[in-house]
Design goal:
The chain is mainly β. It has two domains: 1-42, no CATH class; 45-102, no CATH class. Helices cover 6% and strands 42% of the residues. The strands form two sheets. It has a five-stranded mixed beta sheet with strand order 5-4-3-7-6, with no helix packed on it. The longest helix has 6 residues, at 35-40. The termini are far apart.
């Protein structure tokens, strides 16, 4: 159940409409965001370390601390592209940003 008075329309992801937020800016002007800008801040960033494949490992690995549950999570992939939106092991969506890469370049 929503609290009374909270009936403002919420933006739909991908729609290019300008939606006025219910609040005001610091200087008293109304704040306007595009729908893409509003959804970009929905997922917290998790800065990850990426590990290249080697003789023992055939796939890419990442290790990151989840900003939602504050625990370490791991991921793996067959290709080098691992950043972006991922579902963490705790079940929450996070935006993974590759901060550093370990291992020898092939």
């Amino acid at each position: 159940m929503r609290p009374p008075g909270n009936d403002e329309a919420r933006p739909v992801a991908g729609a290019g409409l300008q939606v006025e937020s219910p609040g005001e800016g610091i200087d008293g002007t109304s704040v306007r965001h595009g729908a893409d800008n509003v959804t970009a801040h929905r997922y917290p960033a998790a800065f990850a370390s990426r590990y290249r494949p080697n003789a023992e490992r055939r796939c890419w690995w990442i290790a990151y601390r989840c900003p939602r549950c504050n625990r370490a999570h791991f991921g793996r992939s067959n290709n080098e592209i691992m950043g972006g939106l991922r579902r963490a092991r705790c079940g929450r969506l996070v935006w993974v940003v590759i901060a550093r890469t370990y291992g020898e370049a092939a």
